[in-house]
Design a protein that fits this description.
With about 900 residues, the protein is α/β, with parallel strands linked by helices. Helix content is about 35%, strand content about 25%. The chain has an eight-stranded mixed β-sheet, sandwiched between helices. The protein has a seven-stranded mixed β-sheet with strand order 11-12-10-9-13-14-15, sandwiched between helices. The chain has a seven-stranded mixed β-sheet with strand order 17-16-19-18-20-21-22, with helices on both faces. Strand 3 and strand 4 form a beta hairpin. The protein is flat and about 95 Å long.
Length: about 900
């Protein structure tokens, strides 16, 4: 338990109305402000806070907060240097329960100050091992009682005369996280209103001559028909492009909600400070090239004055709502109004998506070019689209993630309401792998990002073109109920190309049933071949093609239809328009249709149908197949209920923290645990290990072997010294040892070859037959703990048969981990192999996930091999790497 109330970070977070506050530990210099906080309270609020009135109550409360003692912690909230709230707990330095109290300045109630402070106090208390808060309140203090009740934590109340005794359990369960999410979402959306729905906009840096970015944005705002107040800020002009100009932001006749900053980098900090003092609520900084000092000053100004920030180094933002018509970008054209939200870090990608969605007719609801992403992020934009009532398709291009676990929670929720698509950029960052262990070598950034996208239900594409292809289908067509595709074509070659594309995309091509064959032969011309593809021949007419597709649609064994067409002289001679056949009431068909037109000039188009809907047409069969595969994956993700993190018995978290703390106290720089410490840590989580014994002498090794020999009498001996990771590569393992003589010879060999290094050996019985697997964890500095699983043994890195998911693992995540690797059939009894203990394997992965989630100091864990046999699962060799790391709550509400 810390005895320093000043320990802990300073963070900024949003109140319920979207304003920014600073949350920080109390310092001794805060005494006068804290005393003033209480002195300015009404007598009624003082009575509710202190259960009575005393002239010294304010002074005594400030004294306690500013004089730390064991078991006490105090956090305050301040805005623009003014203290507006205080929350504190005290447990006297012992036990796991602490008393809590809260004070909020008069006039600032119902804005979430107290709730936000308590959330941060809960997080700090958990880190100190406190599990329960207790609080006494007068039964008439409805506001504080409502605050406790609405936290989302389990709360019990008991009357004690006129007082109410509240007991609050600090478990971080889904109920609490969901309640925190809801509060954060409301605050986040409120904070973005000045940015995306401003009543007044000012452009600082709009020049009088053509060619400047500021002037281009001012022109875009005016030409786009911005319906609210618009100003320019330029001391050398009274009007620019017909927009009134003023010498400074403070001289404007109306305080702008949003200020666009397009000045040289050196002038950005001073401009931001001026905007903050004038009362602006949001900044859009398009300027690039800020150095670290300028960037720090810009961020500090935004935090001090409570301004949300987009950029720097960005293209701008837009909102196509006709009541607003905000286009604060310097893109070449105005975006077409529509229903797709776009958030990008690359201005070039942003322009491509704006143009592509406008050309397709999908259009844009809101657009944000995030640039260097000092503040507003993809997470913010997802929450905006979730609540704006317009957006039904979200497109992201993110090169970095500030808080991936918070992003994942938001994305999991949003993707159940609308498709969320992204370009998986930076896939080739293989140089980031650390080759210290098998686990780290396997954990690439590509794998980590893939785990994030998969678990969150995000549709990840490999290019901007593929993103637009998938968006066209998801926007225009219903989702398939499976991956079974039937191909219809009027040219055999086109059908072959389409079949290859579908198979390569992971789609299945079912053989038509006899009933379907008869049904199609009845409507298609003579000579048609009914297989998959269905070759309708060049003689097929418009009406015949329409009837064919309609009948395929009604067949229960087909989930989607891909129609590959080529123009023919036969159709031209008869006046048949085969494409038109697919646009006749296509919207009423219950399954998705994708068209391939090999002669089409554009990669993807949306063709209008007779019921005012659209059908996607692609120039390449690969594009159509990829889009259908993305739709099938989304449908499968939506059909599966949200996973849960199972409760585990036999977990000793407190003892695990003790083991880790003891090791790091003796090894401040961290390191690899020895066999005894490693076994003790695994034992805290009930992770099964093969029996083993430690021996430092030849005689000890013989005694250990006698004790551990199984029915066949064979043992294994492994050398050990600090830092030894790849025993097989070092030839530091002896297998299949029989009798004392072989054990002694093996020990002497290891002792001779590794003289001066070896500190002892591990002796184990020879394991039974089974499948050798690999399981491990890497703590990613950005993404948090990543659990890896796959084929184990000495070839684990060579074959690279691994998959990964971010912890904490749900029951669905564990199922996916076990079934995804190529070696998975071996676990299910393929080729006569015995079925492994799947339940035991699930438990091992869940317990490994729990260990990684509990212990941020766990940098890596490497279990290789893990033996999966019919009778159980056990870890044959385990390595654990610890580093001194301060725990950080990934779900705590705070700004970047």
């Amino acid at each position: 338990m810390t005895d320093d109330t000043r320990s802990g970070p300073t963070v900024h977070a949003l109140l319920a109305d979207g304003t920014t506050v600073c949350i920080r530990p109390v310092e001794s210099g805060d005494h006068d402000q804290l005393e003033g906080l209480y002195e300015e309270m009404s007598p009624e609020n003082l009575r509710l806070r202190f259960f009575g009135l005393s002239r010294r109550s304010a002074e005594m409360a400030a004294d306690r907060a500013c004089r730390p003692h064991p078991g006490y912690r105090a956090l305050l909230a301040e805005t623009k240097g003014q203290v507006i709230g205080l929350a504190e707990y005290d447990n006297g330095g012992t036990g796991t329960a602490a008393d809590i109290s809260i004070a909020v300045a008069d006039g600032l109630h119902h804005r979430g100050v107290g709730t936000l402070l308590v959330e941060h106090l809960v997080s700090a208390a958990r880190a100190e091992g406190i599990t329960t808060f207790t609080a006494d309140a007068l039964s008439e203090n409805h506001e504080i009682l409502r605050l406790f009740a609405d936290l989302g934590l389990r709360t019990a109340r008991r009357f004690e005369g006129p007082e109410m005794r509240c007991t609050i359990e600090l478990d971080e369960d889904e109920t609490y996280l969901s309640a925190t999410d809801a509060r954060g979402r409301a605050a986040d959306v409120a904070s973005l209103v000045p940015l995306l729905r401003p009543d007044a906009v000012a452009v600082v840096g709009a020049g009088r001559r053509a060619g400047s970015v500021g002037r281009a944005i001012l022109h875009h705002l005016k030409a786009g028909g911005f319906t609210r107040r618009l100003f320019a800020v330029n001391p050398a002009a009274t009007s620019i492009l017909g927009v009134p100009s003023y010498p400074s932001v403070s001289a404007l006749p109306k305080t702008p909600d949003l200020v666009v900053v397009a000045v040289p980098a050196a002038a950005v900090p001073a401009t931001a400070e001026e905007c903050g003092k004038a009362g602006a609520r949001a900044l859009l900084v398009v300027t690039a090239g800020l150095d670290s000092a300028q960037a720090e000053a810009l961020t500090a100004a935004c935090r001090t004055y409570g301004m949300r920030l987009v950029g720097p180094n960005c293209l701008g933002v837009s909102n196509t709502d006709p009541e607003l018509n905000l286009d604060a970008t310097f893109a070449a054209d105005h975006p077409r109004p529509g229903t797709a939200g776009i958030a990008v870090q690359s201005g070039g990608v942003g322009i491509a998506l704006l143009d592509g969605l406008s050309r397709l007719g999908i259009g844009v609801s809101t657009f944000a070019s995030l640039g260097d992403k000092f503040d507003v992020s993809g997470n913010d934009m997802l929450q905006w689209w979730e609540s704006d009532g317009t957006t039904d398709l979200a497109l992201l291009y993110l090169e970095s993630f500030g808080n991936p676990r918070a992003f994942s929670r938001t994305a999991r929720r949003v993707t159940r309401r609308m498709p969320v698509l992204t370009v998986d950029a930076g896939r080739t960052d293989a140089g980031r792998r650390a080759a210290a262990s098998h686990t780290a070598a396997a954990a690439t950034r590509t794998m980590t990002r893939g785990a994030l996208f998969t678990q969150a239900g995000i549709t990840a594409t490999r290019s901007v073109g593929e993103l637009l292809e998938a968006a066209a289908l998801l926007h225009s067509q219903p989702l398939p109920t499976g991956s079974r595709v039937l191909i219809v074509t009027n040219a055999g070659g086109a059908g072959v190309l389409a079949a290859d594309a579908c198979a390569e995309a992971g789609l299945s091509l079912p053989t038509p049933t006899p009933e379907l064959v008869d049904d199609l032969l009845a409507v298609l011309p003579e000579g048609a071949a009914i297989g998959n593809p269905v070759d309708a021949t060049a003689a097929v007419s418009e009406e015949q093609l329409k009837d064919c597709v309609d009948r395929v649609m009604r067949h229960p064994g087909v989930d989607a239809v891909l129609v590959a067409l080529v123009p023919t002289a036969v159709a031209a001679a008869t006046g048949d328009d085969l494409v038109r056949a697919l646009t006749l009431a296509t919207g009423h068909r219950p399954k998705p249709v994708a068209v391939v037109r090999l002669e089409q000039a554009l990669p993807v188009e949306l063709l209008p149908t007779t019921d005012l809907r659209t059908v996607p047409a692609y120039a390449e069969p690969q594009a159509a197949a990829r889009a259908l595969a993305h739709a099938a994956h989304r449908a499968a993700w939506l059909a599966r209920p949200a996973g849960t993190v199972p409760d585990l018995d036999g977990v000793e978290t407190v003892r695990a923290h003790t083991v880790v703390g003891a090791y790091l106290e003796a090894n401040p720089d961290g390191g690899w645990l020895g066999p005894r410490q490693c076994a003790e840590l695994l034992g805290c989580y009930g992770i099964p290990q093969l029996a083993w014994a430690w021996a430092e002498t030849e005689d000890d090794a013989v005694l250990a072997a006698d004790r551990l020999r199984g029915a066949d009498g064979r043992v294994v001996m492994k050398a050990h010294w600090p830092g030894l990771l790849h025993k097989s590569e070092q030839h530091a393992v002896h297998l299949d040892l029989r009798g004392d003589a072989q054990v002694r010879a093996a020990f002497r060999d290891l002792e001779t070859r590794f003289a001066g290094l070896m500190t002892g050996v591990v002796v184990q019985p020879l394991a039974e037959r089974g499948t050798e697997l690999f399981a491990g964890v890497v703590q990613d500095q950005v993404f948090g703990p990543l659990v890896l699983f796959g084929l184990g043994g000495t070839a684990t890195e060579i074959l690279a048969d691994h998959t990964a998911r971010l912890a904490p693992l749900t029951d669905h995540d564990v199922h996916d981990l076990i079934t995804a690797p190529r070696c998975a059939p071996l676990l299910f009894g393929a080729h006569g192999s015995p079925t492994a203990d799947l339940e035991g394997l699930e438990q091992l992965l869940l317990r490994l996930s729990r260990m990684a989630s509990d212990l941020p100091q766990l940098a890596e864990a490497d279990f290789n091999p893990v033996l999966a046999a019919p009778g159980g699962v056990s870890v044959l060799d385990a390595r654990v790497h610890l580093l001194p790391t301060r725990p950080q709550d990934p779900y705590l509400r705070r700004l970047r």
